[in-house]
Design goal:
alpha+beta; single chain; 5-stranded mixed sheet; about 25% strand; Lambda Exonuclease, Chain A
Length: about 200
């Protein structure tokens, strides 16, 4: 897929902004505005955990899989629990809701991060946050800059499904039987249409 370069720019700037408060060991104004009693988490592996080619890693012994994912940020609450934070950028006039169909994968994404951190021995809060930057389209002119409304959306994750999903993926990969395609899967539909082209 092509890179979402504007989204990546917002992501990079948000990381820089939260890193300022991380180095200062203080709460970001957004945390204060939303009543979140936490500070950005300081850890020597933070840069690796946010690197797309490294991430938070765990060797799942039963399958011999290396499971990893690159977090956007981690905060720490007053009890010492880690909070998974995911930055998102969009531009919509609609109310941002995690109930939208395509945002279900966002929930699974943070739940995997929660699971990975727990497997690495960290105490992790079930509560995660999405920091949404929504590009405003109601300005009179562009004038070489975009303005955003930033909001924080809480989400209570449940990583109870992750272990079964890993085991299921392993069974599929070692099986000699190709699984049936799923009519809801966009990739399966694409492959079926591609195979019909002469």
């Amino acid at each position: 897929m092509p890179g979402f370069t504007l989204n990546m720019a917002v992501d990079a700037l948000m990381k820089k902004e939260f890193d300022f408060y991380r180095s200062d060991r203080s709460s970001h104004p957004l945390m204060k505005a939303y009543g979140i009693k936490a500070i950005p988490f300081q850890h020597p592996e933070m840069d690796n955990w946010r690197n797309n080619f490294k991430g938070v890693r765990y060797h799942h012994q039963p399958t011999n899989f290396i499971i990893y994912g690159a977090v956007d940020d981690i905060w720490q609450d007053e009890e010492g629990n880690l909070i998974v934070v995911d930055y998102k950028a969009t531009s919509t006039n609609e109310v941002i809701s995690l109930d939208d169909r395509y945002r279900q994968s966002y929930k699974r994404q943070v739940e995997i991060y929660q699971w990975l951190l727990r497997q690495n021995g960290f105490p992790v809060s079930d509560l995660a946050y999405f920091v949404y930057a929504n590009g405003l389209k109601d300005k009179e002119a562009f004038d070489g800059q975009l303005e955003f409304k930033v909001e924080v959306i809480p989400y209570r994750g449940d990583d109870g499904w992750v272990e079964d999903a890993i085991e299921s993926a392993h069974r599929c990969l070692v099986s000699e039987t190709i699984p049936q395609s799923d009519p809801e899967c966009e990739y399966c539909q694409y492959h079926q249409k591609l195979s019909q082209v002469d």
